[in-house]
Amino acid sequence: MPMKYIGLDIGTTNICGVVFDAGLGEILSTAAEANRAARDGAYPWERLQDPEAIWLQAEAVMRQLQLEHPDISGIGVTGQMHGILYLDELGSAVSPLYTWQDQRGAERLTQQTYAERLSELTGYTLSTGYGVVTHFFNWMNHLIPSSACRVCTIPDYIVIKLTGRHNPVMDPTHAAGIGCYSSQKQDFDAEAMEQAGINRSWFPTVRASGTMAGSTSGGIPVFVSLGDNQASFLGSVKDIHRTVLLNIGTGGQLSIHEPMNGPDVPEGLEARPFPGGGRLLVGSSLCGGKAYAILEQFFRKVIASYTGEPVSAGQVYAWMERLAAEDSSCGGESLSVNTQFLGTRQEPDRRGQIGGISVDNFLPELLVVGFLRGMVEELHTYFERLPRDIRHNVTSLVGAGNAIRSNDRLRDEAARQFGLPMHVPTHSEEGAVGAALTAAVGSGEVDSFETAGQRLS
């Protein structure tokens, strides 16, 4: 009997799918496309994508995988968290996807931002980009489509399209990413939402991770989608109890599993439900790998302005890597770079800075190294805020994300700051593999989410 599962990862910049053999612990096939669904908004703070365009790309990825492997046992889905789109009664999208990068919640409502006001009304700590904040802003400003009756995330929408459902279902990982989710109730907090005038009925029914949501027209089981943070953790970590995961891609995240839902959450970190029990303590940097891309764009413009000739991003990145490798022979004082160029979830107006500049050290190689160091430092700060017993229990550092994979100096910097060698999985599709493992757990092929990582080769 086949043990092949498809995992789909609906990312902000890429849409990826894998066929994962849960028996062998190996990826059999991979298909991916750049996410081409970004759309311009009417306001500078909008970050929008077209859900139908995303579905068409996801469908193409699915079709390619199934042509190669028709004997699929189940489908799992993951993807970008926090963002929402609106649906009508038939489950059709009637709005763009308002992504996790959308900044409408940072707009001012009298003396407070919308995110601050909603946090005050509900008693939950909420940030701009969270779906409930986006919905609150849209409701207050009469921006909800007239035919809309509910919201969901983009991975939940892909599940709707795969199964033909009209009503979305959502697991706790996505519900917590939307906001106003109560881990005690294992549901959205209807009473808290009502304090802000928000009706609970706008939000999906919550079901346990690994629950079957329906089947494709061909009879393949499809399971409730999982948040990309949790999926990436599942798809890259073998021992969930002793590992810290550093994921640097478009954004950046530090994630560590806590088996019990403790009463307190360290400052600046979030507690996110983990499938099967416990929670992930997560520290997020909004800029992450984009900080390095900002520096690349700066150098590229300088070079083009001086030479009058265009230069590719790949050429500039290669030059930056050579500069970073040469840093040890520079002998100058280091630069201090704060890479919070997009602010933080708690302080969206905060901005990055470059410090420690002297007459001797304002050099391109030190600027490159300073950016890399700053990217890691922002995440390591979250690690230092964890309780001592959790930090001392960590024996493994795992790296994931395109920035980690493509930059030797970034990996070395992470190993230096955390005091552990960094292990990077052989596969780069961590989220998609985690989604496939979710389907394997849901179908009973894998015993539990706790042991799912042991299936990784």
TrEMBL record:
Q: Does the keyword Transferase apply?
A: yes
Residue intervals of the Carbohydrate kinase FGGY C-terminal domain: 279-442
Gene3D superfamilies linked: 3.30.420.40
Its domain of life reads Bacteria
| A Pfam family annotated for this UniProt entry | FGGY_N
What keywords does the record list, in alphabetical order? Kinase, Transferase
**The name this protein goes by in its record:** Carbohydrate kinase
What is the originating organism of this protein? Answer: Paenibacillus lautus (Bacillus lautus)
